[in-house]
Amino acid sequence: MKYRMDEITESCLGKMLDAKKNKGEYQPYLANINVRWGSFDLEKLSLMRFEKDEEERYGIKYGDLIMCEGGEPGRCAIWRDELPNMKIQKALHRIRPNTELVDVEYLYYWFLLSGRNDLLRRHFTETTIKHLPGETLKQLVIDLPDMKTQKGISSVLRVIDKKITVNEHINDNLSAMAYDIYMHNFFSKKPNAKLKDILTEAEKSAIQVGEAKTSNGEYPFFTSGATILKWNEPFVDGRNCFLNTGGNADVKFYVGKAAYSTDTWSISAKSEMSDYLYLMLFSIKPELDQKFFQGTGLKHLQKPLLKDRPIYVPEKLELEAFNRQVMPMFDIISENTRENQQLTSLRDWLLPMLMNGQATISD
């Protein structure tokens, strides 16, 4: 049965950020940058003044769908009380479903599919930044199956997404453990060499990021962005670091066959020091951003300058003990990354088939 969005949900935008006019107590709020597809980034929350009588209007509850109004309109995630007393800023829609008519997880997957197949795009207003205004959101039409079917579809897709999330949490914990081991053993060591003394560079890629966005290959494709895409053939194998060369500093690590974009610098290290190299670079990421990225417009990584940076090279026994601890961690992280790419492909294949009725859930 077809419904307008305002027939099955109650929605509103968050509070306008205005330091001069806003009154009340400072409280954390979600902004556009904090909302990912299916999750929230809660590491860098800003504060805004909220008055007591604004708690209900701008507060969010368990089961609310929080959606970006601009930037990437439609990007959303379900709030599950990750933090107490959270509010939203004006760049976000709070969508509160009528749970007798629509399952919030089914609604999330409907928006995910609609974002993928450009169904939402036709409703955007565009000047320099795309927007999905509140009144337009309320007029969107959704074809809802019965509640049993909704819950069956969302439960299948949720199982896949939960496994992806579990793998991500495992990777985050292992990465933090490896970083702590590096910091404890090596961070204060006096330099005895330069980065170029241990560095091995892979060939520069000729593949643009845009070319990989439509690829469905089996190998991870690293870019200067956060998303790992796919490519149909590997450029490197083994234990490799992937550094951004434009924009902001970042470094990633992967064990296995992989590809990378033309704006990504692929490097490794001699004498089984690649894991050490990655953690050393990760530990100086603020320095990379401030000292080694230069330029008047878009900043770029100054490779010759970075190659001359003094570093500490571990003694043989030190390195062996270090590798025995951290190499198994990065092996697991890379295996989980591969599994998550496969799970994402499975979910993205099932998503339209289930939502369009091409595949059904049996009892």
Per CATH, the superfamily of the largest domain is: DNA methylase specificity domains
CATH topology of the largest domain: Adenine-n6-DNA-methyltransferase TaqI, Chain A, domain 2
Structural class: alpha+beta
Number of strands: 24
- Overall shape: it is globular
Task: State Rg.
Answer: 23 Å
Number of helices: 10
* CATH architecture verdict of the largest domain: Alpha-Beta Complex
Number of domains: 2
Largest sheet strand order: 2-10-7-8
Residue windows where pLDDT falls under 50 for at least 5 positions: none
Main β-sheet description: 4 strands, antiparallel
Overall pLDDT metric: 93
Binned, the helix content reads 25-40%
* CATH hierarchy, class of the largest domain: Alpha Beta
Distance between the termini: 22 Å
β-sheet strand percentage:
15-25%
What does this structure look like?
With 363 residues, this protein is an alpha+beta fold. 37% of the residues lie in helices and 23% in strands. The chain is built from ten helices and 24 strands. It starts with a strand and ends in an 8-residue tail after the last helix.
Chain-wise SSE layout:
Layout: E1 2-4, H1 5-8, E2 9-13, E3 25-30, E4 35-36, E5 39-40, E6 46-50, H2 55-58, E7 65-68, E8 76-78, E9 87-88, E10 92-97, H3 104-116, E11 125-126, E12 130-131, H4 134-139, E13 141-143, H5 147-186, E14 193-194, E15 199-201, H6 209-212, E16 219-222, E17 229-231, E18 239-244, E19 251-255, E20 259-260, E21 264-269, H7 274-283, H8 285-292, E22 293-294, E23 300-301, H9 303-307, E24 310-311, H10 316-355
Parallel strand pairs: 3-9, 16-20
Antiparallel strand pairs: 1-13, 2-10, 3-6, 4-5, 7-8, 7-10, 11-12, 14-24, 15-21, 16-17, 18-19, 18-21, 22-23
Helix pairs in contact: 5-7, 5-10
